[in-house]
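Anyone else keep sequences and structure tokens together like this?

Example one:
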Amino acid sequence: MRGISVPGVLAALLSSSAMTYAALTQVVDWGENPTNLDMAVYLPSKLAEKPALVLALHYCGGTGQAYYQMANYDQYADAQGFIVVYPTTTNDSNCWDVASEKSLTNNGGGDSTGLVNMVKYLIQKYNADPTKVYATGSSSGCMMTNVLLGVYPDVFAAGSCYSGVAAGCLAGSPGSSPQSADGRCASGQNVKTGDEWAAQVKAMYPSFNGSYPRMQTLHGTADHFVEYYNLAEQLKEWSALLSVEFSLNVTDTPQSGYTQMVYGDGTKLVGYSAADVGHTVPVHPDLDMAWFGL
């Protein structure tokens, strides 16, 4: 759940309420913000007529600015004219809340609600396409990607993320950071069947009866911070939610040492096992954009 240390970047980000960081612009007054999140946006010089929207979520201890530098989605946004949102949480050691009932409930008033309100603001302000909203992130950001797709399946079309845990894995934990979280989740001890995971997710938004978003998730076999076992739990969860079964492994995809785990025909759910990679799997922007169709 923890990435590189960026105290200088964090201090700079928190020192201003409205300013531009290179290509990133800080946004204020974007709507209901129950947990005091910060919002920064990358806007390409030429937006598409109805731009897609990508929500990119930082790791524990990170910031939107730091993840902007890490993810490197600029060239893709510039080419396709889509918007990338880089939010920041300053709560619980800058870790996204993936544990509280508020965040794990549709319109519950937690971090997940604030993030979705950012999406709604941008859809209205820039005429973004509500059918092309995507989430991605690393570590804590991947945990929140799982949560967002589970709690707001009618907002997001797909997710692609790195080194996280299943939605609901930390439910009821005192917090979501390495210092505050119930360690059984990150250590891979929270093991359930696919049906059990799916039932937990469906309870987060019980009135929803539509299709769940497509999911792509990557994890390193040498990850002992958020243990590799959590990849299997994510895949069980989304396999059940999307009603697709494991089909085949494809070795050395997208690169040597990575194994692609295909479910169904590969259009709804795929996983990637990265041999000998620790925490976190490096961001693969081309893989993310291909999954999103951007």
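And example two:
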Amino acid sequence: MRSLLLLSILAALAMLTLCYESHESMESYEVNPFLNRRHANTFISPQQRWRAKIQERLRESSKPAFERNREACDDYKLCDQYARIYGYNAALNRFYRQRRGAE
């Protein structure tokens, strides 16, 4: 009986310490996750947006030719399916490169 009382007291203390909600845990409920459309772009300054556009253009221009071809094939469903079976080179030859003798 004495051990049961001691065990229940320890369980109650453990529950109080582990389930305590501090003020910091309530802060997440105060913030609205949705923004007004007018304030949605205020996170990034215009200068940062400009830099990001330039970096994206540089990445696109410095891509190897096979990567650009592969992306073009991925956008076309028939080419993508053909590439999964026969490989990207065969798919590109079939769908994008002109055949010899044709205009």
